[in-house]
């Protein structure tokens, strides 16, 4: 892999950009690997990357039915934060956020991490109490967050209306080092780094079956033939239940659609991320100038990658009171992704009933921000066969044991 | 937009008039059941990519709960039937079979 640098740009400028190489190879699958990871989204690629970087395991294939990063990695609203209430969540999301800080240098790929600050608005007295509690919990967890009063909110977000009759802003939970990153670049950066370590990233290769023998996986049947493996990682988000089904076990996840949309591009008007959980809406401004808006999930099982229009209407209707200026904006694009929701709205990073098969799923509506931490924890689980400190609480058997990590109550909605 | 016909009042209700209630025909487990049964009832819901039976409530209409057969991969609605059914009606199952020969059937 040729490193990207200012010298590389200068060199290529001199020779009409003829020397750039492909960011990653697209090889045909080998017969056998040490590790096969199903799903080349952010989480799958990050798992592969940290397997190589932290454990020296590089005989790895990452297989993907569509194109790299074309699922939820390319469909989210790119928000990064770690202001969670429960200790296991705060630990893994803070690990992810801290890895994002230096990810561009680590991968030699600009992921455009922008720690621009993130506000979670408190618009009811219940939320005020909830976020004050989160601030105290975060202080104990070592996550830097603070409670700010409405006047400070107005200072940080001049376009906000803090005196709305229905949804007044009563303060906010502020994480100064939260922000956004370029979502595609995260997938591409990891893919390039994995490929440079000799891993195979195989796109347009759908898993059709999982073969196992004596309680252990031997390989996967794909549209490009059988691929043998010593260890299998399932990191497929929305279709986790389907792949688990092929492997012969059942997961406590349900797939629903989550939607987002962007406006026409406008001049810079908001340099922080604002989340308003009471009204199920969150908004930030992209580098192109579009207002990026995320909404809530639909309430029914869905695999179509498109959601119900009335959810968008509800989100915008509520956000217009808080941001009156967006009422005249035209919305350019709207899309949906299929998110896998668990009963407690926390992820699963776990061993499975099959000894050498591991699963990472259930990130629901909050997967992008977790990518580096999730990959880190999953790589440790796959390399050692046992979960490390970050993953141990996210077992798929916690529902049977009643050991929930209940962020559905803690986080309200958006998460 | 989803349109489901309420089997009670006969109204072809669109989604905003309805409230979804997830998997239908759940067998409820409580005190005296095994841990596995209780976990399965509470959390391991059916999540098929294809034919799914689910509960809906005609919340801004007659207010009654009913059941629906719907495809989660295409959003096609096969039919609705009253909530007082312990399993999908035979004619609905036959209709789905005809449309989806690959469908493995209810259960």
Automatic annotation (TrEMBL), chain A:
<protein>
    <recommendedName>
        <fullName>Sarcosine oxidase subunit beta</fullName>
        <ecNumber>1.5.3.24</ecNumber>
    </recommendedName>
</protein>
<dbReference type="GO" id="GO:0008115">
    <property type="term" value="F:sarcosine oxidase activity"/>
</dbReference>
<keyword id="KW-0963">Cytoplasm</keyword>
<dbReference type="InterPro" id="IPR036188">
    <property type="entry name" value="FAD/NAD-bd_sf"/>
</dbReference>
<dbReference type="Pfam" id="PF01266">
    <property type="entry name" value="DAO"/>
</dbReference>
<feature type="domain" description="Rhodanese">
    <location>
        <begin position="35"/>
        <end position="79"/>
    </location>
</feature>
<dbReference type="InterPro" id="IPR001763">
    <property type="entry name" value="Rhodanese-like_dom"/>
</dbReference>
<keyword id="KW-0547">Nucleotide-binding</keyword>
<keyword id="KW-0288">FMN</keyword>
<dbReference type="GO" id="GO:0046653">
    <property type="term" value="P:tetrahydrofolate metabolic process"/>
</dbReference>
<dbReference type="GO" id="GO:0005737">
    <property type="term" value="C:cytoplasm"/>
</dbReference>
<keyword id="KW-0285">Flavoprotein</keyword>
<comment type="similarity">
    <text>Belongs to the SoxB family.</text>
</comment>
<dbReference type="InterPro" id="IPR006278">
    <property type="entry name" value="SoxB"/>
</dbReference>
<dbReference type="InterPro" id="IPR006076">
    <property type="entry name" value="FAD-dep_OxRdtase"/>
</dbReference>
<keyword id="KW-0274">FAD</keyword>
<dbReference type="GO" id="GO:0000166">
    <property type="term" value="F:nucleotide binding"/>
</dbReference>
<keyword id="KW-0560">Oxidoreductase</keyword>
From TrEMBL, chain B:
<dbReference type="InterPro" id="IPR038561">
    <property type="entry name" value="SoxD_sf"/>
</dbReference>
<dbReference type="InterPro" id="IPR006279">
    <property type="entry name" value="SoxD"/>
</dbReference>
<protein>
    <submittedName>
        <fullName>Sarcosine oxidase subunit delta</fullName>
    </submittedName>
</protein>
<dbReference type="Pfam" id="PF04267">
    <property type="entry name" value="SoxD"/>
</dbReference>
<dbReference type="GO" id="GO:0046653">
    <property type="term" value="P:tetrahydrofolate metabolic process"/>
</dbReference>
<dbReference type="GO" id="GO:0008115">
    <property type="term" value="F:sarcosine oxidase activity"/>
</dbReference>
